[in-house]
Amino acid sequence: MLEIKCPYCGKRSQNEFSYGGDATIKRPQLGEEISTEDWDNFVYYRDNPRGKHSELWHHVSGCRQWFKVSRDTATHEIFDTCKMNEDFNV
Amino acid sequence: MQKYSVFSLVKNAFTNHENWEVAWKDPEPKKEYDVIIVGGGGHGLATAYYLAKEHGITNVAILEKGWIGGGNVGRNTTILRSNYMFDSNAHFYEFGMKLWETLSQELNYNVMYSPRGIINLAHSDAQMNAYARRGNSMRLNGIDAILLGRDDLKKIIPFADFSETCRFPIHGGLMQPRGGTARHDAVAWGYARQADSMGVDIIQNCEVTGFDVNNGKIEGVQTSRGNIKTKKVGLCVAGSTTLLADMLNMRLPIEAHVLQACVSEPVKPLLHNVVTFGAGHFYCSQSDKGEMVMGGDLDGYNSYAQRGNMPMIQHVLTGGLAVFPNFSRLKMLRTWGGIMDMSMDGSPIIDKTHIEGVYLNCGWCYGGFKATPSSGFVFAHTIAQDQVHELNSDFNLERFHTGKIIDEKGVGPKPWIG
User: Fold this and answer.
1) Of B150, B243, B387, B396, which sits most exposed with the smallest number of CB within 10 A?
2) Pick the CATH number of A1-25+47-90 from 3.30.2270.10, 3.20.20.150, 3.40.50.150, 3.40.50.1470
């Protein structure tokens, strides 16, 4: 069982959360000319490291806020969590 | 190579089974090979076998970091099927089903192919319509499919919950009678033994640590047992694909996720088919030893750990007990996990790459085991001829740019959404 610290509610069990994938993906700017390749990369390509991974989680059965988690994909250790507009401390 | 038969079994019984030949050798890596296959799992071993058998290329090495068959080919739930609706998938997997049917004879190794039938349960009229459509698509592609009603299923799985007030009442199901199971380890060992007998070097405990690429061409691989030259490299490393692709500066539409499975204690014959309860994220078959082999969905977050987490086991078994309440008394024997190479449309990638001489076989998601023979066959063709086979021409990397994706499940590029 993962224990995830929601930046709004504190530590809760994994059961309360759902996953949102790679947190480093940025949607291309609206209203600007973008290449097909940039769009494809946004839709289909993402980081897949063995080790430290920045990812999105959703406290779906709690405060319903999205936030960021820095987690090791091999050991499942969670280094840090933060709000969407913040950066990790660790 | 010693042929396995009832006569060789009897003959060896007289010498206490102490004089069997080794099934495959343990060679030192040579300085150079025509083709190097990275990954000694089912797909890598099958690729090497078909390279030797179909294309006469025998100066081949399989480099395996651990031991052969220790990854997903030894961790899956052994299910074979070709019950796909899309043509690209249907043709590819049905070709594989035909190879499965004669594989034991071809490899002179009993892979225990058991066409016990796979049944997908349906829980609404709409789902029955969807299954009728899928079954018709399958039959148009020459694949066997039978639409089962509620009463048919009461005869096949009488112990399932057929009450009308449960959350997902059983309306019927779609069955592929030729679908079933095979003994997964035997598949790896059978391919390994035959490939070895034709001259392929199976090199275990040999980790690939880098690639020598010059002017866009592969020239060799660096390994924990020294550098090896080659002109062609095939990657068959499933969940570790991104780790090797990173060494080649290739970004792929792949995410690594852990998928768990579990078996119960062995019991007397009860479940004679493979049954999937998709609505409850659960499927099950009974092994020849009598264990209930059960599985479900991904744990749901990126993972390179070959072990899973309890919440998903609980979720899967909750679904299982909803459809088979009598399983509640079964004791769990063991659970385990494997790393899936989840592609962004749920379909595999078998293709050439931007580096000359590097070939890619990945993106198997939930379904790599059943594809072992067909994947090996078409990948061997792709490597030997330096062009894709008709059957894997749609499983290209380009589709993530052209938009011709093969999203059979319709979940989009979010593989953790079951």
Assistant:
1) B387
2) 3.30.2270.10
